[in-house]
Amino acid sequence: MVAAGCSDVAERHLDAVQAHGRTVTVNLPDHPITIDTTDLSVRGQVLLSDAAQSSLGEPTPVIVNSAGAHWSYPKLDLEVQVAARGGRVVFDLATRTDQTLAWPVTGAGMSDLQILIGDGLDIPAADPFWTGPAPRLAGGEGFNVPDLSLPLWSFGHGSVGESYLVPTDIGTTLHFTAVAGRIVGTATHKFVVAKGRGGYTVMIRETDGSPLAGAYDYRELLQGNNALTTLRDKISRNPDVAKLIGAYHAYSFGEARSKAAIEKLQALGVDRMWLGYDDGLWPADSVTAAKSAGYLVGPYDSYANAQDSVRADSPLSIWPGDLWPNGCIIDEKGNRQMGFHNRGCYLSSQALKQRPSVLEQRVATMTSNGVNSYFLDVDATGATFDDYSVVHPMSQEQDRRNRLARMRELGERFVVGSEAAEPWANDVVDFSHGSSTPALAPLWDAERDRQYWGGYAGPNGADIFLRKVDLTPTLHTVLFDPKYRIPLYEAVLHDSVVSLDRWELPFNKFPAEQPTRTLLSMLYVTPLIYALDMATLNAEGLQLARLQQFFAPLASTAGVEPLTRFAWLTDDHLVQQTSFGDDNLSVTANFGSSDYHDASLGTLKAGCVTARARAADEQWNLCT
């Protein structure tokens, strides 16, 4: 009986994957996908990948067995295995030789690109702004796939689309170019065998062309691999995580860290907040007051940087013993890996792992005032490193494992946040600062201009947080133009990680962008982040309270639910709608300048948002 079962499976797989000369056909449930082994081009209803840009050489004959189709390129010492799995065509490529492969080559003939920069962008392939020089998307330096919010991209064309998932994201880059005025994208993978990266997996799926199709494909993959931990799961492990639901976030400076500031927030009616600080310790009485108010409060910390204690520009960069310089990551050429903004060096997570008492003492010091949360910068981002030190050698994969272990340990006692949290960290991160922000090159240019943007100094806190700024048209389009924004990150992780903008992009920094940011926040049910000194709290506290009080019931209804639907209701993409859970909550936002009329909604005025909770039969309305 067992043997017969195995035979049945093998026959079904042989049926699913067939070979005819140099053409491999993968019979997916809806339609076949064909692969030309001569050049690795892939075609379904549309061209899914053009020919590889690398010279492959002559392929061997295709062998089909119970595992799928297999062939190789002897010139490259490259093996290819193709299978049908979960409605996708899965390519597993392997080599014993360090090399680079430019494939897949995607987007030909498509009308829209969906890319995971921040929450997500839907970019018309022929849009002159995005194909032009200003955003530096097409023809730019490209993206390390681990630096994308999720390791995927997709294209759409009417009712047909294509989704690309790269589980082996480390070592993969994604470059976009404009070909005949249209954006196409090429992935390039660098095989580094000595660091355990001799494999490259790409999953390709034809979709219905809807803007979130690629994100839902990835969520399905995570769920199928038991790799998605929900906020409900996290709340069961640590009940304090529930305090995130409905909370706004703020970094506090100066007197805004006082007990009086907590009392003012309470008096304004703000019932939930996450409060952070980036140097020293909050006074213990303020921490006690914040916790008594039901708030979360915690330090900003980073384990990523080490500097000479004599010249260090931050106490967080000073480490005991000889961690400076002996704990520095060593690059392939034998040099120290320079730190962020060329400050000191990047500190090896393996060096810290070898000295567990260092982090134990660090956490004890940082939390001695009784905090209930902890923000650990960098750890959940894609910025991992190979370390060529002979004392603490490490691959990027090991770097990830080290970071996961220390965030998991923090999570046993605190509500944990990190920067731009990647999906591989969703089990250990409760909230993420930066995953909502489409951070492209123009943002980094602006932040380097201290006269325009503000620096890390100021009378009541760093100007980079508190200085008011009017964005250039390019920055407005890149960061906040709603017609390009789509909730891809939320479609995958809304019920797993609470996502916000970067801490140096607080809501109160850009007054002209506040109407749009308010609507985006309510539409996605993601909280706003503020920077508060006492003057800001006095001047803008009423607005903060008004927005938080509108947001709280939306989050109470849908904060732990998946985002299940997104739609543009107008051709200009300025009226948008989301749904959460089993239609538990429906939110409609009008980013346009004219009223929107709908039989079920009635009239939604320009600059307004309406939310409906099905079970409670409640409706909330807000105009900016």
Write a concise keyword list for the protein shown above:
globular; disordered N terminus; nine-stranded antiparallel sheet; TIM Barrel; Beta-galactosidase, Chain A, domain 5; single chain; alpha+beta; 25% helix
End-to-end Cα distance: 67 Å
| Strands side by side in the biggest sheet | 6-7-8-9-18-15-14-11-12
Shape: globular
CATH topology tier name of the largest domain: TIM Barrel
Helix fraction by DSSP (H/I, runs of at least 4)? 25-40%
Provide the number of structural domains: 3
Please state the oligomeric state of the protein chains shown. Answer: single chain
Compute the average pLDDT: 96
**What is the top-level CATH class of the largest domain?**
Alpha Beta
Discrete helix count: 17
List the helices and strands and how they pair.
Elements: H1 2-16, E1 17-20, E2 23-27, E3 32-36, E4 41-43, E5 47-49, E6 63-65, E7 68-73, E8 78-85, E9 88-95, E10 99-106, E11 112-115, E12 121-124, H2 128-131, E13 143-144, E14 152-157, E15 160-165, E16 172-179, E17 182-191, E18 199-207, H3 213-224, H4 231-237, E19 248-252, H5 259-267, E20 273-277, H6 284-292, E21 296-302, E22 305-306, H7 323-326, E23 345-346, H8 349-353, H9 356-366, E24 373-377, H10 396-411, E25 415-419, E26 431-433, H11 441-448, H12 450-453, H13 463-466, H14 473-480, H15 488-493, E27 498-500, H16 514-524, E28 529-532, H17 534-558, E29 563-568, E30 575-580, E31 585-590, E32 596-598, E33 602-604, E34 608-613, E35 618-623
Parallel strand pairs: 19-20, 19-28, 20-21, 21-24, 24-25, 25-26, 26-27
Antiparallel strand pairs: 1-2, 2-3, 3-4, 4-5, 6-7, 7-8, 8-9, 9-18, 10-17, 11-12, 11-14, 13-16, 14-15, 15-18, 16-17, 22-23, 29-30, 30-31, 31-34, 32-33, 34-35
Helix pairs in contact: 5-6
Pfam families: Glyco_hydro_129
